[in-house]
Amino acid sequence: MNQLTAFRKELESLLNEHNAILDKIEEIINWWAQLEEKGLPKYGEMGMHIHELRDMLATHYEEEEEKGYFVQIKENYPEIDFKDQDFVKEHSHLLMQLNIFAEKLSLPEPAFKNWNEAMEEFEAFLKQFNNHERAETRIINKVLQA
Ligand SMILES: [Fe+2]
Ligand SMILES: [Fe+2]
After folding, report:
1. What would the pLDDT profile of 104-129 be if each residue is shown by its tens digit?
2. Which of 36, 63, 126, 140 lies 20 to 30 Å from 20, alpha-carbon distance?
3. Reduced to 3 DSSP states, what percent helix, strand and coil does the chain have, rounded to the nearest 5?
């Protein structure tokens, strides 16, 4: 296998990881929607789900940074526009937000007025998370189609 083929294989597995993370998020959203129907807030349990998601993301981001996928792409595919996004900076920002959210959910006294307020915080996180992963996926696809 030549170097380029190996790199493409790695990028493909990175895309699979993106999908696994999206599945995990969908699982959380479905679980949340079911609870909402019953009208039961379960902050502690949500905190556990968010902890799991955080660990998954931390591993994913560590891998992206250690293997330097995007640094390599930047060097070898100068025609791809990164639109000034700093992925490493975004990683630490996203993880920090999840840490704070998980902590708030795990407090003995709920830190939220109600379930809705907690959901809004999660949705705000998801917006930024989607923006990050979508930008990466767009770049990976450009390389794979090149
Ligand atoms: Fe990333
Ligand atoms: Fe990623």
Report:
1. 999 998 899 998 899 999 999 999 99
2. 36
3. 80, 0, 20
Those residues whose beta carbon sits under 5 angstroms from the ion ligand 2 are: 136
* Cα–Cα distance measured from residue 134 to residue 106, given in angstroms and rounded to the nearest whole number: 30
pLDDT at 49 over 90: yes
Instruction: Encode pLDDT of 74-92 as tens digits.
Output: 999 999 999 989 999 999 9
Positive or negative CA dihedral for 37, 42, 45, 47?
A: positive
Neighbouring C-beta atoms of residue 107, cutoff 10 Å: 12
Find the 106 Cα to ligand 1 centroid distance in Å. Answer: 26
Taking CA atoms, 93 is separated from 19, 49, 96, 100, 123, in Å, by 21, 19, 5, 11, 15
- How far is the centre of ligand 1, averaged over its atoms, from the C-alpha of 17 (Å)? 11
Q: Encoding tokens for residue 20? A: 């696994």
Radius of gyration of the chain from Cα atoms?
A: 17
pLDDT given at position 129:
96
